[in-house]
Write a structure and sequence with these properties.
Number of helices: 14
Bound molecules: NADPH dihydro-nicotinamide-adenine-dinucleotide phosphate, 2-oxoglutaric acid
Strand order of the largest sheet: 15-18-19-14-13-20-21
CATH architecture of the largest domain: 3-Layer(aba) Sandwich
Strand content: 15-25%
Number of strands: 23
CATH topology of the largest domain: Aldehyde Dehydrogenase, Chain A, domain 1
Largest sheet: 7 strands, mixed
Distance between the termini: 76 Å
Structural class: alpha/beta
Oligomer: single chain
Shape: globular
Number of domains: 2
Amino acid sequence: MRDTLDSFENLIGGKWVAADDHRPNVNPSNTEDVIGLYASADASAVERAVAAAQAAREEWAASTPQRRHDLLDAVGNALAARKEEFGTLLAREEGKTLAEGIGETMRASQVFKFFAGEALRQAGDLQSSVRPDIDVEVVREPVGIVGLVTPWNFPIAIPAWKIAPALAFGNCVILKPADLTPGCAHVIARLLDEAGCPPGVFNLVMGRGSIVGEAMVNHPEIDAISFTGSVATGNRIAEICGRMKKKVQLEMGGKNPMVVLDDADLSVAVPACLNGTFFSTGQRCTASSRLIVQSGIHDAFVEALTREMQALKVGDALDPATQIGPVVDEKQLRSNLDYVEIAKSEAAEVIGGERLELETPGFFQAPALFLGTDNTMRINREEIFGPCGSVIRVGDFEEALAVANDTDFGLSAGICTGSLKYARTFRRKAQAGMVMVNLPTAGVDYHVPFGGRKGSSYGPREQGRYAAEFYTTVKTSYVFAG
Ligand SMILES: NC(=O)C1=CN([C@@H]2O[C@H](COP(=O)(O)OP(=O)(O)OC[C@H]3O[C@@H](n4cnc5c(N)ncnc54)[C@H](OP(=O)(O)O)[C@@H]3O)[C@@H](O)[C@H]2O)C=CC1
Ligand SMILES: O=C(O)CCC(=O)C(=O)O
């Protein structure tokens, strides 16, 4: 059967380079469905990609804003025009539902089009010197060659929101997508190639993180690394980049709190928590994994959320009726199931969470709610990254805020309340990069900064105009005009 599968190769220096090894891209809804064989390169491919980027960098850095705009705009248009096709591929390789896959493809399209505009809007800053007859000019220049290491959980949006600003600001790119979901990254590479991206400006190197990723992070000619993924890998990358004085941007985990106060509207709070905790199978760094609920509303909230959770249809991601797709792979499913056992051993009451055997061989899990938990438990301190949420009962707003902030992470934090006073205080005091009021903690806009505090993020923010901080370096020049 493997002989009949298509092979998908790396794009290096404008050529599709056949790799010696390939790995199957398997559908997590049905492990008998193999999407194709994707290149699994070794470190020599990184060397070739760096050489190609070095050859291209000067010309691309000097290219006109119009040229960069047109390239990114073309990719944005192509993604939008073919959103069903690419969204279906996304659902097939990652396990998001069809609607989520198509939505994420549209988000990638919007990101490309946003940064197409940003390429035209680059501005410098002309300042008066404190000394006579001197002009001071501050400009942003490209960083150079940027290495992008991306995760499996947003396989088209995250590559998009790293590639688009990198290219818009005149950098050359080497992308290493997650081993589990190379298909969407390959789509972006094809679209960039078809849109006339000059050879070496964008390079795709698929392969294992421990080989290709390591080689990129350690390569002295790669000037900056942008990474999204686990805390362990992020910490390792930070250490190496720190030692090498390399620019680095890390987006890692979350243990995001969602506070539900007594005065919350249940018709708002329950859908927000259902979405934030379980949609995308909980595989979002912005997922609401700690539901911090005030005593007066606790029982009604738990009863309503349990009812809604149990009504969610878990199934094949490609079935339009499915609301919760599979877990991404066996390893992640085992880890989730281990956390269900940990919850029981920590004396939580567990509703759901069992492995489901459906018509196709896949990695299905019933959504899980852990009740009667407290914030010291492992299930409330460690990122699970599955369809699991804990309920922590609190007495008042002050306790809710303290519990929300009592975590090593600080990505997203939410509150459901009818009180302007509590919403305002929460927005000010939540130790998180993003705060949501009467909205799920997950699901963000594409044109504003994304990122967190504490153990969640490191380095400048991603997305929106703030992306310029990472993908450019500032030059201040002085001219004596006397
Ligand atoms: N913040 C987020 O959005 C995400 C968080 N996670 C968390 O991480 C856990 C594990 O997921 P996993 O996919 O293993 O996460 P990883 O951090 O291992 O993977 C993220 C990316 O880093 C690459 N990588 C792995 N090792 C290295 C390395 N030594 N040097 C450079 N790059 C490397 C991976 O490649 P490869 O795929 O080939 O290993 C992948 O492209 C999840 O359960 C979840 O808790 C995971 C994904 C996203
Ligand atoms: O919640 C979102 O919209 C984005 C989440 C995300 O980027 C992530 O989980 O890595």
